[in-house]
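Running log. JK asked me to keep both predictions on one page so they can be read side by side. First protein, sequence followed by its tokens:
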Amino acid sequence: MFSFEQLEAFTATVETGSFSAAARKLNKVQSAVSQHIINLEIDCGVELFDRNGRYPKLNKNGQKLLPYAQATLKQHKRLVNNAAILFQDNQHDITLAIDEGIPVQHLTTALASVCERFPTVSFECLSASSIDIIPLVTSKRATMGIMFSEPQIDPQIDFESLGSVAFDVYVSSQHLLALNKAPHLDILLLHRQLVIRSKSHETSSFQQAYSPDVWYADSHYVLLELMINGFGWGMLPVHIAQPSIDDGTIVRVPVEFEKLTWQANIDVIQHQSLTHCPAHAFLRENLRQLYS
């Protein structure tokens, strides 16, 4: 019969590329990891790795087993997280991490409803880039996050879509890019780009660096200030850029391809251990209705 230790050793070896790296990840000795995988192969009746090279390579049998092992471990984590709170008070205070690029007027409306329904719940709000919000929720420093969608999040986190925010490409009205309509987007590569990046140096899936000359910030408002003062071009949520467009300090980058605006999806994320918290569920319900 398979054990969770066997499945953990198996998936960790696949993810890290070697038995020794898997052992370090799992804080075990290498012999224990190797033995777990040998026992798993005995239980399966087949070998799961090709061991002829320097590092173990997943074979066809291992490739077939891997998604089932990963799914089983995810469900096990969900079971552990939910079992831990079965006999506790299931109402928790709310610590919300939100990307400042997301409008907050809907948030305050939702919080008013939560306060009315759950008057004893305490609230804390943290401002962070979307990439930084994921580890905040994973570590439970934040109990909930509102962020721009990312394709990869921790398996212990649940998420749902709330809506979207419009983004566009802007530059100072005094910048060279603003003086003439460019024939193509490649002209942007000749000028410094301003990009949002997390405190861990990661960039969002839709906020990539394209220019060879890039400056970074973890705040859309810092990015806007750099933009206003002519340090480069960048992408901003339309609602943040609009006041500066209205006063003429920045403009949409003028190019022949006019339709640069795109919609970035907004997600609300939450640690699985808080699935049954009524205050968090009520806040999610209100956010879903308001942002949509």
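And the second, directly underneath as requested:
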Amino acid sequence: MELEANCPLKRIETVIHLIVECLSKLKEYVLKRGFKNTDEEIHFFKHQKPVIVAKLIYYNTIYKIEAKKPYGTKPIRKHLNKELKELNRFFDNNLVFYKYYRSNNPFLDDKYFLRGKLDIQLCVDTGYFQSDMTFSTSHDYKVAKIIANDLIQVYIEDQLYNKFQKDKSKTPKKLKWTGSKVALIELIYALHFQKVFENGNKDIREIARYFESVFGIDLGNFYQTFLELRNRKMNRTKFLDALREELIQRMGEQDEK
């Protein structure tokens, strides 16, 4: 369902019903089975249940956004920006817990993610008191909300960009590859071995020629370059390692904002 391009309201309704049904079955299973120890309970309420509940929050929010969407470019933009402000308000109001969760700290997990461990001083949401405490902790819903808000922000920003970007009719300007040719060849081979193009049915030569065309670059004898990469005694995937390290660092910086 998620792979479909659009999000019509009827499809969202179907997804919401599916998630509610799954949560009901999960609750029945968990309450019947129980947990082996507190570590397993914490893991469930901190990492497993929130991922599913986050989907429910996400689709329910998208449903309301789409159902209330007005007509006209300016009203729609205003409507979407208002939703973004709501996300920022939640972030500001829960900054301390955001930092705790994003840093993957464990020292308050026994208070946040064990049932029956209510501590009013830890800023418990009012909704918790109306929840089923046999299947909820004081902060598992808040984790789900954090995960969902990330997804909602991506959705809204994508809507704003796709619907309101200027000069849509113009052909996008070609990007210039300013990294080294060796780095690009390393990337091409990594993508090829992952079979991300045509399920692995494209020859490496076709992929390389495509990249040459897209970036307007001559990779020369890329077979020879790859052979040299293989023969490196150290740091055989220098560029890919740097990509991974930079991405993780940037993600960490974004989490702290």
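Observation for JK regarding the second prediction: The radius of gyration is 24 Å.
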